[in-house]
Known about the structure:
- Chain A: InterPro entries: DUF3311 (IPR021741).
- Chain A: Keywords: Membrane, Transmembrane, Transmembrane helix.
- Chain A: Pfam families: DUF3311 (PF11755).
- Chain B: It is found in: Membrane.
- Chain A has helices at about 10-20, 35-55.
- Helix content of chain A is about 55%, strand content about 0%.
- In chain A, helix 1 runs antiparallel to helix 2 (about 35-55).
- Chain A has about 70 residues and is an all-alpha fold.
- Chain A is elongated.
- With about 475 residues, chain B is mostly helical.
- Chain B has two domains: about 5-385, Sodium/glucose cotransporter (Up-down Bundle), CATH 1.20.1730.10; about 385-485, no CATH class.
- Chain B has 23 helices and no strands.
- In chain B, helix 1 (about 5-20) packs parallel to helix 16, helix 7 packs antiparallel against helix 16 (about 315-350) and helix 7 crosses helix 17.
- Chain B is globular and about 75 Å long.
- Chain B starts with a helix and ends with a helix.
- The interface between A and B is large, with 34 and 41 residues.
Amino acid sequence: MKSLQWLAALPFLGMMAGPFFLNRVEPLVLGMPLLLAWLVGCTVATSAIMALIYLTDPANREPGEEP
Amino acid sequence: MNAALPIIALAVLVALGLGLRARSGHDMDMEQWSVGKRGFGTLLVFLLMAGEIYTTFTFLGGSGWAYGKGGPTYYILCYLTLIYVISYWILPPAWRFAKERNLFSQPDYFAARYDSKSLGILVALVGIVALVPYMVLQLKGLGIIVATASYGAISPTLAIWIGAAVLTVYVMVSGVRGSAWTAVLKDFMILFVVLFLGIYLPYHYYGGIGAMFTAIDGAKPGFLALPDRGQSATWFASTTLLTALGGWMFPHIFASIYTASDERTFRRNAVFLPLYQLMLLFVFFAGFAAVLQVPGLTGPDVDLSLFKIALQTFPPWFVGVIGATGVLTALVPGSMILIAGSTLIAQNLYRPLARNATDATTGRLAKGIAPLLALACVGFTLYGGETIVQLLLIGYAVVTQLFPAFFFSLLPNNPLTRAGAMAGILAGVAAVAVTVVGGYTLAKLFPDLPGPVQDLNIGVVALALNLAVAFAVSLAGRGARRTAMP
Lengths: 67, 486
């Protein structure tokens, strides 16, 4: 399932386009200004996305391992 | 004498000990010295890559920017996260290529891909221009940290000499293995210190993180978001992208790719390293906590905000712990820079010009260059003055110019020719020199552009010029060859 690799575009989109729409301090989310909270959320989501890509990428299987 | 000093001294000694011990059981030939015999596992590569990126600049500069600039500082978190997203795809092919051909350095990669010694020399020169200011920044940071944390008992000059001597010794003895082992100590300490400061300071002074941000927003409305002009959302997006692309192009960071034993190491790290960047959040919190507690720092002094608030909050022994951590954040990247810089000079400037150089003589030469390079950097640090900040900006923009030639070399059919790659890099570097040295921004160059476009990072211009020249020269070269054929 190599097709999941397009998901890697999302962190770029979130971090580069987000500030245009969410450039605000209020409301605080988890105690943080809205913009910062959004970017932190993007960082956490990036790890999750990369994990998903890693797990479904055939390049990471041991040779001879079952698909 | 205060309690901070022995703690800092202990950390330096432990780092030196770890660095020296790292050699045991390994024969220090060139491959072992500069790329750890390509035998590092996931954890060591993780620490090396995290270690190079968590420098004094992140520690002092991350909190300093939060203190001095507010919202724009969030870009550091973004670009460091995106660097690792990119790494998933670009590092494995670069690693494979380097392993097949037994490459040691970043210019080796370009020289081999484009089959051109001159391109290798050009890339080496660009690399050195970028590395020296980076090293000077580490040493300057080290001087500030030790002088502040020792309550003035040790002067910055003395601290710089001691720091440079320590890292030169373990670099000469253990090479990149020494860096990796001191990185273990450093990351353990920085994790503890940063988490503690980022949580304790907001609670101690404001009663909580939300309360802290409410107080700052009340005192300085809009400070915690991006301004409408200047470091606006356009600036944020373009700077994040440029620095994320440029990050891997620093010679010492590129060389760390070669240390891995297995290409899956990179893909695995691409999952965990973004999460690790959240540590920066606590660096920001510490910097923000200082905003209302130690007001009045301006200019380069904003980098002191973390230490200023620590001095007024904690007993000397804990200031010592923070200082020790700061010293390690300078030593680890400093040692990587020294190794990469010496390898660059020996392998990519001396070797192509010397007829009968072997791996052994080049390796000996690289180790011999290390102390000279360290000495040169100390000289720049002590006598270079403020121009160094300017140089660092150039350094970052300059290495980014290597990215197009690197990126296209990964494609199955590289559209760039040797001449195209060289012309592109030269054009980009020239554009950087003119715009950064001249202090130009897009707003100054093109006053008629709409406001948000003017806020684009000026580096975009150099990169665009680089691409245009690289493609034009490549196309012209191919066309000429075709007509020359019978």
